[in-house]
């Protein structure tokens, strides 16, 4: 069978896959995402809020990262990577070191120097801007990274949705004027909605606290689900939505945009948050540019975060049933799960033909070649939640039983017809 060099293998044999599924959900996990992801051996917990990504989970993470990179590059973001380990002096310049004590991991290193693990990177970005941005000609510029953040969360009980160590995509934009920042901020809103839609999530833009700039709101991207820790008041018929933290409405109130509509409440997961920062950080760090009149001015900033690992947790919370996960194709660890039952030369050769065809078409395949019972294999297949299950057995002959994870019914197709039949579907 084809095996080629690729950044992720296109074909993985389940007998070789590191990590075995658990018969039952692990004890000590309350959230659906952690229960299913650990049961399926996507991730493993080491302590509250700290997880390993096993090969299956890492494939999902990488796919989400790719979607995010594409959308960030499309809004002219340049990728950088900043350190987690940061000196206290930098945070003292903006006065945040003391206030962040409850949430930031801060310690004395071996040379008695105060350091902290970054909870966010406004200070580091402003420092880079101070060093590299000289004149208005250097602006605007947008820098982003996908990086590990550390936060001492009080009670991390939501699996990947609340890590003490977690992956965030953070983007920072630097501007000469408020107007320029406002225009770019709107572009990022659209890019964020693209990211969430491509991940199979329907996110609402919600007004929330935390915009430092002239006391404006920040905007959160919230996915409505019972599994969320936030509460959102929203209008079902327009875009009005506010986080309960700051809301000026209550459930059942008339919508401020159209009094005939009534405000509803829902729990929600915050998958992203964007902020107009103004000059707060550039003032503190001393990040300036020289304008067209030759005058020194503070750089105007905005910042934009997406919870990359939280997206995995959110997708699982939204896309699951009693049997397991149901990955959207765009983020699934593999496109196809080829499940072989029986081990005769005929069955082996039918499987080989099928897999070769899929790989030649550029598809990714998890191949269940294990010596296990049919029940075990089918249960695992439902648990892992790969969008298409292709069953090859003595019963299927030269055909293949095709079943979508999202649907009850299956159909018998010849290998050649599978791609053709499925190609009309959304990818
Ligand atoms: P929350 O209110 O849920 O604690 P936050 O408002 O403190 O989140 P931000 O500082 O806005 O988080 O961070 C940007 C994004 O990073 C959030 O929108 C969220 O998606 C993600 N995020 C924040 N904290 C965590 C965490 N502990 N684990 C996983 N993702 C997180
Ligand atoms: Mg937030």
Commentary on this structure:
The structure is a single chain. This protein has 427 residues and is of the alpha+beta class. 28% of the residues lie in helices and 29% in strands. The chain has ten helices and 24 strands. It has helices at residues 32-39, 55-74, 88-93, 122-132, 178-198, 280-285, 308-318, 345-360, 374-384, 415-422; strands at 11-13, 43-47, 50-53, 77-79, 85-87, 106-108, 114-117, 141-150, 165-175, 203-208, 218-224, 230-234, 241-243, 264-278, 288-290, 296-298, 300-307, 320-321, 324-325, 336-340, 365-368, 388-392, 400-404, 410-413. Strands 4, 8, 9, 10, 11, 12, 13, 14 and 17 form a nine-stranded mixed beta sheet that branches. It has a six-stranded mixed beta sheet with strand order 1-21-20-22-23-24, with helices on both faces. A hairpin with a 5-residue loop joins strand 15 (288-290) and strand 16. It is elongated, with a radius of gyration of 25 Å. The two termini are 25 Å apart. Bound molecules: adenosine-5'-triphosphate and magnesium ion (MG). The site of magnesium ion has 3 residues, from strand 14.
């Amino acid at each position: 069978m084809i095996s080629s060099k690729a950044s992720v293998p296109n074909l993985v044999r389940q007998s070789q896959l590191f990590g075995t599924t658990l018969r039952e959900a692990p004890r000590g996990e309350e959230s659906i995402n952690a229960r299913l992801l650990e049961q399926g051996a996507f991730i493993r917990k080491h302590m509250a809020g700290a997880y390993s990504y096993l090969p299956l989970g890492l494939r999902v993470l990488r796919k989400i990262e790719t979607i995010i990179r594409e959308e960030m590059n499309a809004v002219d973001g340049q990728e950088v990577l900043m350190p987690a380990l940061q000196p206290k002096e930098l945070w003292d310049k903006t006065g945040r070191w003391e206030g962040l004590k409850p949430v930031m991991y801060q310690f004395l290193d071996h040379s008695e120097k105060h350091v902290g693990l970054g909870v966010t990177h406004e200070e580091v970005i402003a420092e880079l801007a101070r060093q590299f941005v000289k004149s208005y000609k250097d602006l605007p510029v947008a820098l982003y990274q996908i990086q590990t953040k550390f936060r001492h969360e009080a009670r991390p009980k939501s699996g990947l949705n609340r890590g003490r160590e977690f992956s965030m995509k953070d983007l920072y934009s630097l501007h000469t004027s408020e107007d320029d920042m406002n225009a770019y901020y709107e572009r990022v809103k659209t890019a964020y909605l693209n990211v969430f839609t491509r991940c199979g999530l329907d996110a609402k833009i919600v007004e929330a606290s935390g915009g430092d700039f002239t006391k404006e709101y920040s905007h959160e991207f919230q996915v409505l689900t019972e599994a969320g820790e936030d509460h959102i008041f929203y209008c079902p018929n327009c875009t009005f939505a506010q986080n309960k933290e700051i809301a000026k409405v209550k459930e059942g109130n008339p919508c401020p945009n159209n009094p005939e509509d009534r405000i509803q409440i829902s729990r929600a997961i915050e998958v992203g948050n964007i902020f107009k920062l103004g000059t707060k950080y550039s003032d503190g760090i001393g990040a300036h540019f020289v304008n067209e009149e030759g005058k020194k001015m503070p750089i105007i900033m905005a910042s934009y975060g997406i919870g990359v690992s939280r997206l995995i947790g959110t997708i699982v919370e939204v896309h699951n049933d009693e049997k397991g996960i149901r990955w959207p194709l765009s983020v699934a660890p593999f496109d196809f799960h080829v499940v072989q039952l029986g081990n005769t030369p005929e069955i082996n050769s039918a499987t080989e033909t099928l897999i070769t065809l899929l790989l030649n078409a550029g598809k990714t395949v998890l191949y269940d070649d294990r010596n296990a019972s049919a029940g075990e294999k089918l249960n695992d297949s439902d648990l892992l939640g790969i969008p298409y299950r292709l069953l090859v057995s003595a019963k299927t002959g030269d055909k293949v039983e095709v079943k979508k994870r999202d649907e009850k019914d299956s159909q018998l197709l010849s290998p050649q017809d599978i791609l053709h039949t499925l190609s009309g579907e959304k990818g």
